[in-house]
Amino acid sequence: MSSFISDTISNSRFQLIATAAVSGAAVAGLILGFQALEREERLSELKNSIPSLSTDKGRLNSFGVSSESGLDLEDARNIALAKRAQSGDFDEDLILEQLARNQVFLTPEGLQKLRDSFVIVVGCGGVGSHCAATLARSGVSKLRLIDFDQVTLSSLNRHAVATLADVGTPKVQCLYRRLIAIAPWIKFDLRQEKFDESVAEAMLAPWKEDGRKPDFIIDAIDNIDTKVALLKYCYDNNLPVISSMGAGCKGDPTKIVIGDIGTSKDDGLSRATRRRLKLLGITSGIPVVYSTEQSGEGKAELLPLPEEEFQKGSVGDLGVMANFRVRILPVLGTMPAIFGLTAANHVILRITGYPISYVPGKARERMYEGILTYVQGSEEKLARMFVPGTTGLKTPLTLGDVAFMTEELYRGRSIISGIPTKLVLIRFKKPETCSMTVIGEGKDEQKCSTIRLRDLVCMTKEEATRHEKEIFKADKSLAELYDEETIKRVEERMLEAEKYEWFRR
């Protein structure tokens, strides 16, 4: 054995291979070492380029603010860096390293969509602040923050970034000064104004520099009038929006869900918002974050301020505006944060095109069951065209598939007319061969439809009946029944469905 090893080592070919391997490892080590050193040097240069806190010779007052400049020294340093970064003077590799975990999750293409996006957050309190902070940390490059209010002491139990030093400062400014310290390359548009219908067009206008329309709008308003005005404007103008319902009096994070405004049955704010929207002709089509938690004995409740408190005088100081009804609102600080993070998560996934498969809300399950039954019946009729007498056909679809196709892919509307009621799913194209597979025989025989998500379109029941009669039975072509624009729209949704099928495996 020892002679074999000795002969192998002395072999010139082995020596050549070993030399090459060692050399390759050494070169790889040098390259990796050089890249790490280069990255460290760039990071060091960036840090060294940030103005030192000691460069401002102005003395600080008791609040940590320079009496000469009016700016906290750290704020001044962060603003200086932000100006550089927003003008393009910031190492791209360092940005990508900061966003590396998101890039791996969302893919480079998905992250780039996020970095190119423009998002508006309306309401920068407990919900909105956590939402805005998450979007900033995740890579959104343009943020418009809208809020008329200031930070109060009672804000500190739920606000994402506010400190005691921020009490009395505008909420939008408080967020800005903290978030540029995290991601200085983000461009902010601060609007310290109260949102209402009269200013909706200006508040939700495209980004001034490049005319980009908002990729998403987040409603974190806790006043019904302004909330309804915002949602109505977004709905009428086809602006993507998600609305956060009430986090007050809620304590169970496992009951927080995302669903259509029509499904949010167990939340006071969503109930009032939904009823107001119905009066304006809007019954669905707006995603909301809400809680299904029920009130109960021993749980917190929303109550008017007791009369004895009014007798003490100056109760107006407790409200944010003179005309707002003063109430005691029990809020567990964790819940607004979870609402905000849930909304931000939805926006990130939507903008980047990441697959979403939310569990259907209980109020919609019956509708999904009806749609699934309709698909099964339609597929069985098709199978009988090829194999007469076919019964007991199964479909490879779940309630989750139906919910995704109906609510997420087709946005809860008919692809033909846009009508949001009496919806069903049906094949768009008539199959050329039998759309059924058979496994086993006798009592163990299983008949299954070959239907795929990409085959289905969303229509009203009346439209589907006409489609079945003309396309499946009368063998008319799609062009005879639908215009070119409709067919193109359907084909685009089919391609989108095909991409998501991979995630069902």
Automatic annotation (TrEMBL):
Keywords of this entry: ATP-binding, Ligase, Membrane, Mitochondrion, Mitochondrion outer membrane, Nucleotide-binding, Transmembrane, Transmembrane helix
Biological processes, Gene Ontology terms: cyclic threonylcarbamoyladenosine biosynthetic process
Chain coiled-coil ranges: none
Keyword tRNA processing: no
Domain THIF-type NAD/FAD binding fold residue range list: 105-357
Location(s) in or outside the cell: Mitochondrion outer membrane
Entry GO MF terms: ATP binding; tRNA threonylcarbamoyladenosine dehydratase; ubiquitin-like modifier activating enzyme activity
Pfam families, alphabetized: ThiF (PF00899)
Name of the protein described by the UniProt record: THIF-type NAD/FAD binding fold domain-containing protein
Source organism (scientific name): Hypocrea virens (strain Gv29-8 / FGSC 10586)
